[in-house]
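Figure 2 data, in text form.
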Amino acid sequence: MLFFLAGALALVGILSEGGTPSRLLLVAVLDFALGLAGFLAPWERLRPESPALLGLAGFAVLGLSTWSFGGVAAGTGPFLVLLYTWAALHFPRWILLAYAAPAGVAYLLPLILTHRPPEVLSSALVLLPVAVAIALLVEAQARHLREDRERLARIETWQSAMMSTLAHDVRSPLATLQIVLEELGENASPEDARVIGAGLRQATRIRRLADGLLDVQRIDSSGHLRLDRELTAAGPLVREAVSYTSGRDVTVRIEDDLKIYVDPQRFEQIVVNLVGNALRYGRPPVIVELTRDGGTDRLEIRDHGAGIPEALRPRLFGRFAVGGPDGIGLGLWIVRSLTEAHGGRVVAEARDPGVAMVVTFPAPEAQA
């Protein structure tokens, strides 16, 4: 794109009669040719440093452009700095230092050939060191960003493998545990049956959490999460989800006839994660409300604790954004991913006292 821009400016120079037309036409042709080479060359088959050859050719064309304008370097200087900056974003510093000699020749030679005065020639003593210094600073920052990106990619690969392994390793023993509990419950006393029933429900919950970890991996790999939506009574679904937590100090306020169009298992996971967080990090009472406003359903889970600092709320739902002794910071990220899969959004709103986690998603009529 730099070469295309330079070629267009060379054509403008012809129209303005600011230089030799035949030379400027040659400059434009060369710039457009270099631009096409940049787009069409099979760089992926060559060495990573191969595109740096375009920079060398670019310096030569810049020198020709200065000569064509009779030694006026007003356009050469900015493009020289831009070429250096482009190189700094893509190549190691040794290439930037190697560019110094050809860049100096491209800048000074046309000035010498056109017999420019010494004060004009001395401008190279300012321009070239500035261009090199800017390029080295940009190269250092770009290198740090690339290293950070590679490190994050390795961490995410490890995390994905860890969650996948954990989920698969948990599901097999859970299946055996459920079978054993079901057999024990067949001939158990009422009191034992109640305890065994609670154990079965928690085993089912753990299996769903394992499925949730697999969902995290699927979200990472494909960016999509398949939902099995159905029209569901909101009250029983939310109360069932709340029962997987301690259930104490939690008040559910939902109209009995309110129905929502969601994936019950995934929506249950949203409720469990948010209620669990409210009980763990906030203070009771925790109030769960689900209301409808036109075409939007609104789930609000509020605690009465110390609240969340305003500076933390924008990144609250990022992956590993908020960890602690009781978690690793995936819960709210999963909530956000599941909410977005339902076509909704989740935010944290300040209350006095406490905080409200608000999930909004389309009502059945709006989705229809």
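Caption note: The longest strand covers residues 286-293.
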